[in-house]
Design goal:
Layout (H helix, E strand, L loop, with lengths): L7 H8 L3 H14 L17 H5 L11
Helix pairs in contact: 1-2
Length: 65
């Protein structure tokens, strides 16, 4: 559920356990994952945050330029 985007408190409500228990579960599983996955491929497509790329644009008023 956490990997699919559910928050700790959402999982708490569904599983009927305290959210600190959910955090403990996520930490426990996370510690079993490799620290650096071995990848030799360079991705052809990359997703970036649009707010990061648009943060330098300034407008005097209204929307757009």
């Amino acid at each position: 559920m956490y990997v699919n985007g559910s928050g700790f408190r959402a999982i708490e409500r569904v599983k009927k356990v305290h959210h600190t228990t959910v955090i403990y579960w996520v930490k426990q599983i996370g510690s079993q994952l490799p620290s650096n996955p071995k990848t030799t491929e360079i991705p052809e497509i990359t997703e970036i945050d649009e707010l990061e790329t648009l943060s330098c644009q300034k407008t005097k008023f209204g929307y757009g330029v």
